[in-house]
Amino acid sequence: MAGLTAAALAVIGFFAYQASAAQDRAERPSAAQTAKPSPGDEGDDAKSHAPSKKETALPSRSGEGLRVVYALERRRVWLVGKDGKATRTFEVAPSPVSPQPGTYEVTSRSSHVKGSDGVPVENVVRFASVDGVTIGFSAALDGSTPDPDTSRRTGGIREKREDGEALWLHAPIGTRVVVVS
C-alpha cells in the first residue's frame, strides 16, 4: 500500500510541476510573439510612462528598406522591414563609447559571450568600431540595462532580453545599421 501511495504522490508531483511550467510559459511570451509590431515599449513601466508618438516615430532620413536604426540622443532602436516600416521600437542603454552618425552594417554576431564590462550577454550584434572599441547591441543575461559607466571604454549597447532576441532575428550579418544623432 505504501508503494502505491508513493507512486500516486510522484504522479501528482509530476503533474503539478508540468502545470507550473505551463503557467511560466504562458506568462512569458516568446520572442516571436513580442516581435509583433508595437507602437512603443511594452515594458513594466509602459503604464506609468507610455512613450509619445514623437518619441517612437521613426527618424526621418534614416535610410530605406530593411535596416536597424539607432538614435543616439533618443536612446532608441527601430527594427525596419523591407517595406520601410518599423516593426518594433525599444529603448536601449547606450555604451560609454558611441559610433558617429552614419551607415554601418552588422559585421559579426555571438549568441552568448562575456561583455566588455564582464557581464554575461546574449544576442550580440556588432556593427562598428571606434578607436579600437567594438560597438554592438546586446542583452545582459541578468536583464540589466545600466547607465553607461564613463570610467570604462566599452561599446555594449544594452537592451532588454526580449528586444535583444528580436534584433538578433532581424539583423543577420550584412544588415544595415543606421545611426542618427
From TrEMBL:
Q: What UniProt keywords apply to this chain's record, in alphabetical order? A: Signal
GO terms of molecular function: transferase activity
Question: Region entry Disordered: which residue ranges?
Answer: 23-61, 94-117
- Signal peptide limits: 1-21
Keyword Signal assigned to the entry: answer is: yes
Q: Where is the composition biased (Basic and acidic residues)?
A: 45-56
Answer whether the UniProt record assigns the keyword Signal to this protein.
yes
Q: Write down what this protein is called.
A: L,D-transpeptidase
Q: What is the lineage of its organism?
A: Bacteria, Bacillati, Actinomycetota, Actinomycetes, Kitasatosporales
